[in-house]
Amino acid sequence: MSRFFANLWKYRRYAIRSARAELLGEVAGSYLNWLWWVIEPLCFLFVYWFVFGTLFKAGEPHFASFIFVGLSLWEYFNRTVSGSVTLIASNRDLVTKVYLPKYVLLFSRSLVNLFKLGISLLLTFGLMACQHVPLSPYAPLLAAAVAILYLVSFGIGLILMHFGVLFSDMANLVRIGMRMLFFLSGVFYNIHTRMASLPRVRFWLLRVNPAAFCIDEARKALFFDPVATHFPSWQGLVWWTVLGMALCAAGVWLIHRNENTYAKTI
Amino acid sequence: MSRPLAIRVEDLSISYRGLQRTSLRASWMRFGQRIAIYEAVKHVSFEVPEGEILGIVGRNGAGKSTLLRAIAGIFSPDGGTIDLFGHTVSLLSIGVGFNRRLSGRENIYLSGLLLGYDEAAIAAKEEAIADFSELGAFLDKPVRTYSSGMYSKLAFAITAMLESDIMLIDEVLSVGDAQFKRKSYARMRELIADEHRTVIVVSHDLRTVEELCGGILWLDEGRVVRQGPAAEVLPAYREFMDREFPKPPKKAPPAKPAAKPAAPANP
Fold first, then answer.
1. Shortest CA distance to B164 belongs to which of B212, B236, B232, B112?
2. Which residues of A touch B (CB under 8 A)?
3. Which of A29, B34, B105, B131 has the highest CB neighbour number within 10 Å of its CB?
4. Do A193 and A63 meet the contact criterion of CB atoms below 8 Å apart?
5. Per residue in B46-69, pLDDT tens?
6. Taking each helix axis from N to C terminus, what angle separates A170-183 and A141-166, rounded to the nearest 10 degrees?
7. Chain B interface test: which of A99, A105, A162, A166 (most B C-beta within 10 Å)
8. How confident is the model at residue B1 (pLDDT cuts 50, 70, 90)?
């Protein structure tokens, strides 16, 4: 792992510059330019709020803020994990012409996604202020939920980045898997109330689906909940931190072992 | 006094594990089979003193480009070591690593950072690169909108202007129109002429190698066959190639067709 950290430090300027250029490149040709970073999450929020809050009459208090937290974290997870599968193939020119530790590509992409998550969370705070949502005393734990999501997404991303080079149909599988996870992550419902009668299912869902766990913890951290059972799950935080580190270690090992071959394979 | 070394390659081996891009179904059928390992470079050792121009020759598949990429750091060695004594290195082949979604100007900075330059140093060279590339307003457009000629011009301009201590040239460049070719060849000669710059040239064009290089490394099937001055190694290599791939005998010019016999008269 020391080689991994040394490489991240060595290529940090490249990763940051590349992320910045990528962000500016995304909005460069549009009339509204950087405003898209704000408009896009707001539009998604409106769609989900209208469908689930109005048509399906979801009963969660402060539903718009509730859904925005879930959506922001889910989008980060989805973009990082789904994007990682084709990351090496889509940077073919780079990978075959210069040496760049391959996880630097994922690191740079994660910075792009982290920036978008930051904007979404700022909008969430604004929305919470508009809706007069009482802030929970556990609010600082939002940082822990985001950090764990980052760690786990990075680990999964590293592993998928490797297999994405080898298997041409990996992107299709991941797309289907992510769609399933989306509905099992509680983006537009509360896992605790919807699965109140299924405690075992709920427990395992929060232990195997990182997005479900992090969204749940982020909501617990932000929304004041007088129900005593909804304290942050310390055990879960430790579980996902350890698992996230193990996934990252496995991913780094895979990349170090095989990165010689990527340039040849693609 | 002998010159200090710029490159030392010791007992270098590079293998490709037989990983092929495949479908999940096909890989399931092959489950349990051993992964083939192909050794592209086998126990290669050589040294290049600072300021020398070394040519690498060999048949296709001899391991020349793999060796060059290993020196450039694109592949890490499976065995042995490569020591560049702290020198910066750049690989000049057809195309530098570009991010096609970003503008040419942004790619200048990203390529520079990958070559080990800091942003201030790249900014100082930015205009020179822009001028050399002759891209004008296109420099601020995404690279994916470039023609292949424009792409190559920018690639050459970046590597030629962001000079490195060690230049690795994989096949002599022939990019752009005739005028740009002349300009890039002149710039390459200028770069090679610097007595502190070490250069390795890989080419099938033996005349170019003979003209540019003092020393030659001859590779075959991943191993060093011979290394020494160009005057000694190149004649032996030519003889080997003529023996292995004899030139087809020149075809005799087709004989003039005989005059058509007159059609027999109908009985």
1. B112
2. 11, 13-14, 17-18, 21-22, 25, 91, 93-100, 165-170, 173, 258-261, 263-266
3. B105
4. no
5. 999 998 999 999 988 888 988 988
6. 150
7. A99
8. low
